[in-house]
Specification:
The complex is a heterodimer of chains A (259) and B (206).
Chain A (H helix, E strand, L loop, with lengths): L6 H4 L1 H11 L5 H17 L8 H34 L13 H6 L66 H16 L3 H14 L6 H15 L2 H14 L6 H10 L2
Chain B lengths: L28 H4 L2 H25 L4 H15 L11 H20 L24 H13 L3 H12 L4 H8 L3 H29 L1
Helix pairs in contact in B: 2-3, 2-4, 3-4, 6-8, 7-8
The chains are: A mainly alpha (259), B mainly alpha (206).
Chain lengths: 259, 206
């Protein structure tokens, strides 16, 4: 069914309202919080497998192995039973009762479906990541102790080569702390401290989790400090490298003001 | 919250399919990527869709502090499942999940649609077209949306603002497409009438 022509095409007033709403959005802190949750979630374990192709396939393979093993056991037991039954002097009453293994295995083999299985346990998540509104529910709130503790990463190569281990959980807390420090310094107008935090981040975590955020903070700090040419160049470079970034509007705004 | 509520990922631009089935292509990619790539993928999802979902929840009529919680909660839960969703379908999946979260929050807090929180009085000295102040335009937009009946509002926002097709909306909301059409028609009539009244008041005040 084809829908009606959208109001936005027919009513400039409505378009104006939509444009205004489009400029609304989450704050940097909210974005950082969401990125933090993503980083921690990624560090904990792969997504639950119950819904994934591999997860389901793995379960199916496992079930098949169990089923085959069970059937093999039944067959083997039957053969042993038959042999014993035909052996003179064997137990005369055994033939009237199926082996216990067969009773246990037979029913579920053909009927078990992956979708009927219980869900795979959800990865543990630190309680600090759960929004306050959802903490009391209990299902997702897991003690922070359940989160694996990061281990110290090897240092980044000093020659400027990409630091591949940067996004790992080992550096996450430090990355987040430096990003927060840089942003807080920028917000209170302490450009020197802001640029210091940006520099430390870029030296230690090049290509890290908050690299885009740090780049944007850097650009804004340069613009605020009066280094307009450098801010302009950095903004252009950012837009070239991150064409569809959610920070695009902010960086373009800097670009406009530093022309 | 059960994960079953998130098993309704629907393609924003794939009207033919209604769910991300077990056999959906693309679901196997998460199993083969290493931890770094997975982390980068999740962060990319957040960067791309968090602002969209945040705005969507706001348009559904929730005040900012509730939207913050809802958006965080949504991503916290939905990211566990996002890798099961076909590339290109993430946005609709997240919208569907967002509606469930929002309804859940609404029930949990017994919060009424906060029409009053957007301001009882809108400055009528200018028409919506003439408002240069984005904040005031947003305030008006949120108020007009909040005044729609809840079910109609969801359909209206998804169609008129988020740009989903009617089939997409039927899939996201799990309702027949005929219901989508009727809710959309009523919502458009209601919204347009309210906007028109605002314009008349505005022009009368000048």
């Amino acid at each position: 069914m084809k829908g009606p022509r959208r109001l936005i095409h027919d009513d400039p007033g409505f378009r104006r309202l939509v444009d205004a709403m489009q400029k609304d959005g989450p704050s940097d802190a909210q974005m950082t919080k969401a990125l933090s949750a993503a980083a921690k979630l990624a560090a904990l374990s792969p997504t639950r497998g119950a819904g994934s192709w591999l997860g389901r396939t793995s379960v199916q393979i496992g079930l098949t192995i169990v089923a085959v093993a069970g059937i093999a056991g039944v067959i083997a037991a039957s053969f042993r039973y038959d042999e014993s039954a035909t052996t003179p002097g064997g137990p005369p009453t055994a033939a009237s009762e199926p082996p216990a293994v067969a009773r246990a295995v037979e029913p579920p083999i053909a009927s078990v479906k992956v979708d009927e299985l219980p869900s795979v346990p959800v990865p543990s998540v630190p309680a600090s990541l759960v929004p306050p509104s959802s903490r009391p529910k209990g299902v997702d709130a897991v003690p922070a102790e359940a989160v694996p503790r990061p281990s110290a990463p090897p240092p980044c190569p000093p020659d400027g080569a990409p630091c591949r281990h940067a996004p790992r959980r080992a550096t996450f807390a430090e990355e987040l702390a430096l990003t927060s420090e840089a942003r807080a310094a920028l917000e209170r107008g302490d450009i020197r401290s802001c640029l210091g935090a940006v520099d430390r981040y870029q030296r230690r975590f090049r290509g890290g989790i908050f690299a885009q955020e740090i780049d944007v903070i850097h650009i804004e700090a340069l613009a605020k400090s009066g280094a307009r040419e450098r801010a302009y160049a950095a903004a252009q470079e950012f837009l070239r490298d991150n064409a569809s970034s959610p920070y695009e509007d902010r960086v373009r705004s800097v670009l406009e003001h530093t022309k | 919250m059960t994960d079953a509520r998130f098993e309704v990922p629907v393609g924003a631009h794939e009207p033919e399919s209604s769910t991300a089935s077990v056999e959906a292509p693309g679901v196997d990619r998460s199993s083969s990527i290493d931890a770094d790539a997975r982390a980068a993928h999740l962060q990319e999802i957040v960067r791309r869709f968090f602002p969209d979902v945040w705005r969507f929840l706001r348009r559904l009529g929730f005040p900012e502090h509730v939207v913050d919680d809802a958006a965080q909660e949504l991503f916290f839960v939905a990211l566990r499942r996002i890798e099961e969703v076909k590339p290109g379908r993430e946005r609709a999946f997240l919208f569907g999940a967002a509606i469930r979260i929002a309804k859940h929050l609404h029930r949990r807090t017994a919060r009424e649609v906060p029409t009053e929180s957007f301001g009882q009085e809108i400055d009528t000295a200018a028409t919506a077209e003439e408002m240069l102040d984005d904040e005031r335009a947003r305030e008006l937009a949120y108020r007009l949306l909040a005044e729609l009946e809840e079910n109609q509002r969801a359909v209206f926002v998804l169609y008129e603002i988020e740009g989903l097709t009617m089939q997409d909306i039927a899939n996201v909301l799990e309702i027949p497409i005929g219901t989508v059409a009727s809710r959309l028609r009523r919502a458009r009539e209601d919204f347009s009438a309210r906007l028109e009244r605002h314009r008349k008041r505005s022009s009368g005040a000048r």
